[in-house]
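User: quick one, sequence for these C-alpha cells?
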C-alpha cells in the first residue's frame, strides 16, 4: 500500500541491549505505527541477514538501511514506481551507496 509516513530507528542503540520485555514493548509500539500506514525503517551497522532476523523477531516488513548506510533495502513490489539505480536481490529493491567487497579489496590491492 501507499505509505503515509516513515519512522527511522537506530537499531544499534535501541535494540542492542534490550531485554525480552523491552523488545516486546518495542514491538507493540512499532506495530502501532502500522495502524497509521507508517513503516519503521531500521537503520544499523548490521548486515541484511541480521536485519532480516530483527524484522522477523519484531514482526516488521518495511524497508531498512544496512551496513552503516551502505544500502537501502525496499521490499520488492512495495513501491508503485521504479527506484533509479536500484537492483533486485533476495526479494528487495536494493539501492547501494558503496562498492561490493571484492571491488574494494581489488582497489586496495592495486
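Assistant:
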Amino acid at each position: 500500500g501507499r505509505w503515509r509516513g516513515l519512522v527511522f530507528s537506530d537499531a544499534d542503540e535501541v535494540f542492542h541491549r534490550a531485554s525480552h520485555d523491552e523488545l516486546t514493548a518495542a514491538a507493540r509500539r512499532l506495530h502501532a505505527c502500522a495502524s497509521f500506514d507508517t513503516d519503521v525503517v531500521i537503520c544499523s551497522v548490521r548486515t541484511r541477514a541480521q536485519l532480516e532476523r530483527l524484522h522477523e523477531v519484531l514482526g516488521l516488513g518495511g524497508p531498512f538501511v544496512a551496513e552503516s548506510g551502505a544500502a537501502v533495502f525496499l521490499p520488492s513490489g512495495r513501491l508503485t514506481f521504479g527506484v533509479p539505480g536500484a537492483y533486485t536481490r533476495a526479494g528487495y529493491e536494493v539501492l547501494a551507496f558503496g562498492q561490493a567487497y571484492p571491488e574494494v579489496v581489488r582497489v586496495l590491492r592495486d
